[in-house]
Please model this.
Amino acid sequence: MSISTHAVIESILAGESAATDYSAEVLAEACATLNSAYRQGSPIVDDATYDQVFIAGLASLAPDHAFLREVEAEVLDTNSPTVRHATPMLSTQKCYEVADIERYLDTCEREADKLGLMEFERLYMVQPKLDGLAANDDSVRLVTRGNGLAGYDVTHVLERGMQVDGHRGQGRGEMVVDQAFFEANLGKGTQFDMDHPRNFVAGFVSADSVKDHHRLALMNGALRFVPFATLPKEVVTADELRAQWKALFVSLPERVPYLTDGIVVRVVHPDLMDALGATSNHERGVMAIKQKGEVATTTVAGIRLTTGRTGRVVPTLLIEPVELSGATISKATAHTATNLTAKGLGAGAVVVIERAGEVIPRLVEVVTPAERVMEVTHCPSCDEPVQMEGEHAVCPNVLECPAQAENRLRHWFATLGTADLFGPKTVAKLVDNGCTDLLSVYQLDAPAFEAMGFGPGQSENLVAQLSRSRREPVEDWRFLAALGIRHLGRGDARKLLQVLRLEALSSVTPEQIAAVAGFGTLTAEAIATTLTERWGEIEQLLLLGIPLERTGAAASAENVTKSSGVLTNERVVFTGTMVHGKRSDMEAHARQLGAEVQSGVNGKTTLLVAGAKAGSKMAKAEANNTKAGRVVTRILSEDEYLSMIVETEAA
Model:
């Protein structure tokens, strides 16, 4: 996971930003990262958070985004060959609310009406949903779900001793480990101290050889492939499902000795299943009912307000400590300033919170409002009266607010990525000493740093890093994004500079920005206003001499070299671990050579550069080629790619 993706995920989970604050591509990359971590057995967030915060946010930004249409890939660190499925193994649509169940049933019943099915033919099969690795057993090969179109041939796990419930050839199921055995012999507190059953199963399937902990599980028959056909089931009508789903949610998982994460509902009648059909992501006749995160009732002890980089004042509930999912929770996000007044929040309010993520829980409902509701009227950092922007209270004191200054400096160095050592403690000390803007930071020498309380060696190192950041080249869009302008993150900065030169932004109008795809009228006006207000500062930063690599339509002769055009008309994706340089540097170089660099593989991708441990993107490219019956996406190793560049330049 890249630092930027980590930062996006952590910011959303901490309530410092909303999923919809980011571009669709940035949020899709976060979703891909979270899905990959879950599939490999090391989940970063719980299912409810992934579905209701990240996936829902992406659906809000871009309902037709490719990530939402694709099967959530099972990525394994394995050299096993890939095999195309006879029929696609799709994802399963998920629901958490009664309203979702009603929508599913309404869809099924409408289709049943069209088919003229009798009441006794309108049945639904309910089974426990196993939390393992999906695979299909055709009696010859065991193949993982992979990207839905093709998966890894892992028949070797059966040869090593993984047992099959029932008999071979029963089709789809999941590879799992006995839950009680795992907890007693492999889990936390044992000699192996493993975190999660799925992690253990993924490790066994991917391993080149059988390790001691694998052997222990095999000897005890704990590693198993469980075909769905062998799972316990209940067959119910639509009305029975409405009335009994909560009871089934508890009783069915108790009938299997494996880790589960909900129940699965499937229409029984084959004609109805066919009529409902499927999207590219899921079968419409199948639905997984899942549970939200664990909830608890507690009392608000107080509310802490913090001001972020963009001036938004974020409220956090300080609550009487409660136990949730094995952790002691003492705070929860209240989301926005208007939420405080709308829901009657303040000290003494009785609230229900949910652990929706690993970082900070969220408010679900207010049971008893506070007698004195908190209103956000002033910035907690500089005491400036706030202004309301939609649901958010915003500090307008952009240049002099200490909190905004501190977060802005941290954002600059983190986004630019060419200067180390400027972490939270260093930046906080700078701001405490009155150094609140970038230009003043770049004017500091070693004695000035020492006067602020930094040691002699540390001061010299900080000066050296500042010099480095003025010397190392960065993309112009990264420079623009590092300024921390509201509504202008990495993705949108790149979009803007595909059309306009950076220097042209000194006099850019809202209309010019709104004319760029992806920018709305209100956003364009806010960006144009901020650029005008801060252009003097931006101009001085440009005079620091940071070498900028021009992108898009703004590219100029300074970037045109003998090798320009080598990758013209190529749509390139880089994946895996690179050994000859950072992936971001390779992407920047590819753009200089005329390529359009993509974040994910799609039908238009012409070239995939695969480093070590390439996973789902490589599988997607291979599946595209197989589906087309020809090479749509060339797949090159890092060395093959670099050799091609050198040979083409020399031609």
